[in-house]
Amino acid sequence: MKNRSNRAQPALTLCALAVASACASQAFAEDNLPDMGSSAEPWKVDTFYENHTAFRGRDDTGKVVGLSKFRNTMQVEADKKLSGGWAFHGVFRGSWDGVYRMNKGQYGEDAGGAITSQSVLGGTQTTVPWGTTSPAGPIGYTAVAGLGYPGSTNNAFLDSYANNPNAGLRILGDRWHKTNGGVGFATPVRPCNVDSRGCADFGGYGDKNLNELEFPEFNSRLDFIREAYVKNSIDIGGGQELFLKLGKQQVVWGRTDLFRVLDVVNPVDFSRNNIYDELQDIRIPMWIAQAEWRMGASESMQDRNLQLIWNVDQFRANNLGQCGSPNVALDAGCFFRGMKSLWDNGGTVANFANVAPNTYLATNFGPGQIGLADVNLPKWSLANTQIGGKFEGVTMGGLSFSVNALHYRSQLPSLHGGKRATNSFTGAYQNAWPYLISFDMNFPRVNLLGGSLDFQSETLGAAFRVEGAMTWGEEFANTLKPELFSKNRVWRSVIGVDRPMFVPFINPHRTTLFSGQLFWQHIFDHELESTSMGMRGIPDFKDNVIGTLLMKGFMAGDRISPQLIIARDFRARSHAIAPAVEWSTTDNLKFTFGANFKGGSNGRNEFDDCRSCNPFAPYTSGSYPGDPMVAYSRGLAGMEPLGRFRAGPIGAAMREDEIYLTMRYKF
Questions:
Q1: Are 349 and 612 a contacting pair, CB within 8 Å?
Q2: Bridge partners of 371?
Q3: Rounded to whole angstroms, what are the CA distances from 17 to 29, 182, 235, 291, 408?
Q4: Is residue 593 classed exposed, middle or buried when 0-12, 13-18 and 19+ CB atoms within 10 A define those classes?
Q5: pLDDT tens-digit readout, 505-527
Q6: 382: helix, coil or strand?
Q7: Are 160 and 154 in contact (CB under 8 A)?
Q8: Model pTM greater than 0.85?
C-alpha cells in the first residue's frame, strides 16, 4: 500500500497545482480551468504504427545472435482546444517486442546455460568444471589449512548452492570481451518470472518478467502515457504572458543531439535502442509543472523568457536495460544483476585469489559476503522533488542564449563499497570493511549550472550550437578510496555545427546537410595512479572527447533520404558507423533500411578490479606488493567490472553490429 501511495503523490500534487493555477487565472480572465466538454472544437488525432526488426551478427563468444528486435509500436497523438484558452496534448504509446519469444535462446526463457569459471595456474589459463573441488580458493564456506583459520580444504562450487543452479547463466561481459585472466562471475539472463536470481528494482528496470519485457510501456508508472498535459498562455498585460504547462511531459533543455549536457530533466530509456534512438523517443516523461514568464522585448533584447519547472514525480533512474534483454547500455544491467545474485546466493569469482606468482584461483563466496546488497531508491516526498529554472533570450544581434540551473537526483547509480559482509571464517556480521566489494546502490543529489548559445554565421553559411554545464555532487567509482567511490565536480560541453552544402552526385539541386558535434567531459580532482600491476583510482577518463558527424541527403523530390552517422570515442578508441536510407513511398508510409557497425579496440580498457584490495588478509595478498595485513588496492586489472566505464557505450557494445528494417505508417 505504501508504494501505491507514493505513485499517487505526483498526480495529487499536480491536482493541487491545477487548482492553484485556476485561482491565478481568475485574476487574468473570466474563464475557469479547462472544461473537456465545453468546447465545440473537435479532437485532432493522428495514429502511427511502426515495426522495427533487427538482426545481429557474431558477438565475442563467436556465435551469431540472430534476431535482436521485433518491436511493434502503436502511437496515438491527440490534441484538443479547451475553454479559457487551455489546450490538451496527449501522446500514448504501446509496443510489443516479439524477440523474447522468437529468439528465446538468446533473450527469453531458454537464454544462458551452464558455465565454467577460469583460474590462472602459473600463467596458464584453465577452466574449472562446476561441481568439483579443485582448484579453487578458500573464501566462502571453507578455509585453507595452515593459515590459522578454522575450516576444511574442501570447496563446494556454485552448483552445490541450492538456490543457485548452474543453468540460465552467462559469464559477465562475455558478449563483448574475454575473461583473459581477469575477474569474471555468473549473471542470470532469463526473465525474472523464469529466473528470479539477481532481480531487483534498479530504478524502473531489473525485475521485469517476460510480459513486462515484451510490453515495456504497460507498468505501474503508466509509461504508455508519453505526454498528457494541459497548457495555456495568459495575457498579464504590457505585452507579457504567463505560460503554464501541467501534466506528464518532456522538458527539453538541450540544443544538441545524442549528448545530454543540459537536457537532464527527464531520465532516458536506453533499453529501447541503447544510445541510437532519437531523444524524443527515449526520454521518460515525468509529472511536471512548468511556468514561463514571457517578458517580450527590451531595449537590449529581442525576446526574454524565464522558465521555472517543478518535477513532482517519484524519482526515476535512467533505464540501462535489464540483463538478458537486447539493449543493456554499458552492459551495466548485467553487472548489477550478477552482483545482486552474488550477494543473495553466493557464487564463484574467476581468478580472484592470488596465492602465488602468476596464479589466480577461482574463489567461492557465500551469500552476504560480496556483491550488491541494497538498492536505495529515493522515496517520494516533497524534499525529493526536483526543481529548476532557465532564463533565455535573444539579443539584438540574433544570438540566442540560455542560463540553466537544476537541483535533481543523479539518474545514474553510484555504488558505495566497503559497506558490510559476513565474515567467512567466524560467521559474524561486520560493518564497514574497507575496500570490500560489497555495495549499496545510491542516487546522489546533484546541482547543475550551465548555459547554451545558438547563433548563425552568414560568412560561413553555418549554424553553431554550444552547451556547457558544471555539476556538483556526482559520484564515480574510485579504487583509491576505502568506500570505493568519490564525489567530483564535472564539466561537460558540446559544440555543434550545421552546414548545408551542395553535393552534386547526391543531388545537384538540393543541399545535403552536414552536422558535426564534439563533446568534452572533464572530471575535476580526478585520481589515477599507475602501479606495476595496473592502474587504480577513477576508471572514467579525466578528459574524454567524443565526436559525431551526420551527413543527410535528399533525393527524388525528398522521397529518398540517404544518411550516414559516424561517432568516435577518442579516448576509448572505438567508433560506430550507421548508414541508412529512408524511403517515403507515400505521405503516410515510410521505410528505413540501415545498419550499425562498431569498431575499435578494448585493449586499453582494463582497470583495477579490486581483487587485490585485500579485505581478507593475508590470504588474498599472495604475491602482491605491500603489507599483506593492510587493505588497499594494489592495482591488479581486468575488464570487469570497471572496464565498461572506460569502454563507454560504444566500446561496451563492440560486438552488437546490426542491420535493421523499419516500417512506419500513419493512419
A1: no
A2: 438
A3: 18, 54, 19, 11, 20
A4: middle
A5: 888 889 999 999 999 999 999 99
A6: helix
A7: no
A8: yes
